[in-house]
Every structure is written in C-alpha cells, then in structure tokens.
Amino acid sequence: MGIRLKPSPAWLLFQAVISFLALPASAAVIREDTASLGGEQYPCVYKWSDPSTRPQAVVIAVHGVTLHGLNFDALATHLAERGIVVFAPDLRGYGRWCNSKNPGQDEGSAVAYHQSGQDLISLIDAAKSDYPRLPLYCLGESLGAGIALYAAAEEPCLVDGLILSSPAVKRRLNLSPKLIPLVLSDAAKACANPIREVNLTPYIKKFASSDPRVVNEKINDPLVRKRLSALDLLKTVKSIRSTLKYAAKVKPNVPVLVIQASNDKVLKGKAVVELLAHLHSEDQTVKWFNNRGHLMLETSYLHPDVLQTVDRWLDDHILLGKPLLRISDSSAVATFSRSSFNQSESN
C-alpha cells in the first residue's frame, strides 16, 4: 500500500508559478468586436483572448472622455498573450454608440455616465458567470478610473482589484495664452446654446499627451468623439466630482494600483494624494512616471516600463496575492507622494 504525501502550500505555489511561466507561446490573440458572454451578444463591448493559453484572469478596461474601448487594443492584446481575458466597453455616448442614425435620441447615443456604470456592473456580472474561478480586475484611465471605482464600490464581492491610470479627480484650470480666446469663445457659444456642440480637437491636441504620436493617433481616429455639447461637458465634470465619493466606498480588501504621469496636462497629479486618502484599501501600490502625458494605456504607443508595472502587479496578485509596494499607513502615503507631486507641479 503506497503512502500519499500531501503537497505543502509552498510546493503548490511553486507549481502554479512554473505553470504560469511555462504557458505556450501565443498562437494568435482573437479580438471580438461584439463580445459574447453567457450566450448573449454585447455589440458595444470588445473582447480579447488567446485560445492557446489557459485563462489566468479577467480584466475589464474602461476608457476616458471622447475615447472608446478599442483604444485599449495594444494593451489588451498584450495582456491576452499572457493569458488574461480582456473586455472593453464603449461608454454610452462614445465609440460605436455614436453610429446611431438619430444621435442623442437612440438608446445609448447620448452621454450617460451613470447608465454606463450600470452597464459595467452588468458586464462584470456576466464575466463572473462565464469565468467564475478567475480573479476579475477593473482597469480605468482618466474618467474611466472613476467609473471603475463606482463598479468596485457597488460590486465588492465580484471585483478583485483595481488599476487606475491618470485617475480623474481634479481638473487643471491653467490654460496657455493661445487657448484663452478659444475657451472664451466656446464658453460664450455654450451659454447661448447649451446643446450646441463644442469642437474638442484643439483641446485634444493640447492636452491628450506629451507624445505627438499619441495625439495624432486620437485626432485621426474616426471613433474618437471630437465634439461634445456644453451639457455633456457638465455631465463629465459632475462625474469627475464623484470619484472621491466612490473611492471611499471601496472595501479595504480590494487591492489598488495607481499610475500617474508627471506631465499630465488634463488633471492635477497632486489630487492622487487625496484619492489615496479616500481609499481604505489595505493594499495600495503607487507608481509615478516622469515626463509622461495624460494617456498612458489607451494608445498603441505603450511604454515598456508602464507595461512592466501593470504586468508585475497583475502577476503578483494573480499568483502570489501580495502587492509590489504595500502602503498601509496613510501618513506614509502622504509623505511618499507629496514630494513627488510637488516637484511635478513646480515644473
């Protein structure tokens, strides 16, 4: 009669790591422009997966203002090659929702952030039903970070972690002298007719990124929305103001990765300190990138160090369950962050 030895937890962990690292090379990542979940079709949700690899986790990526889910194509393809199933919805009023024959009247064609948050929760529920044993992470950039926080606050049992890039907390109000006449003109037109759309192209050129390739990518993307009404912009401001409220409701056991650029011309980098103070997460990882602009994940021009940060954080939490950098003392967060942010703000 043989003797069966019970493997130790350390041995099981070692096997899991080796199994993950020894995944076969990707045959080809498949992108579905209409995601299928639970037998239902999601026409405004993209999905990336690699059938040659064993799924390790699910990531749902949420885009920012004017953008759309396909802006995550490079990042999602990279993650799918590593065994992560990625979904990216178009928020209502953006991307393919704008292909409506009756803009602003057909369902989904109008900007609606609260309803987009509800859509995200439904997508999380469906993804968890199809992948019940996989950890699920919400990733959001800019305004998308606030919507990801909303979903994590509403679905604490389904969201296993958050990745927040350039989170929209507080807008920058300083404008270059060249833009002031344009801003005043647009403001006057908006006051006269709040539903009249404002041309956002000059603002995208100025603020989207410090990398001209990223700016040109957005300007030439037909799915990027280049015009919004004053009412839509007010909805956007209102949504941004809710970010801290949602952050305070996220459960302490939800790990959070925050990445922020020093050259963000859209949002105040200092506000990330305030975001960290509102988050009760016992597992906060913060990564600061010097000389980078607002958009870091929603582009084809991904920087290797940004990818490495996201990869390591995901690997750490999928396999090991512990952070790269644990910051549990709120005073330590402020001390760690304030010098970096103050240095950035002075540049």
Keywords:
Rossmann fold; alpha/beta; 12 helices; two-stranded antiparallel sheet; 347 residues
Describe the fold and architecture:
With 347 residues, the protein is an alpha/beta fold. It has a single domain, classed as 3-Layer(aba) Sandwich (Rossmann fold), CATH 3.40.50.1820. It has 12 helices and 12 strands. The protein has helices spanning 9-21, 73-81, 113-130, 143-154, 180-192, 201-207, 212-219, 230-241, 243-249, 271-278, 304-320, 330-346; strands at residues 30-32, 35-37, 40-42, 45-49, 57-62, 84-89, 136-141, 161-165, 197-199, 227-229, 256-261, 284-289. The strands form 3 sheets. The chain has an 8-stranded mixed sheet with strand order 1-4-6-5-7-8-11-12, with helices on both faces. Strand 11, helix 10 (271-278) and strand 12 (284-289) form a beta-alpha-beta unit. The N and C termini lie far apart (74 Å).
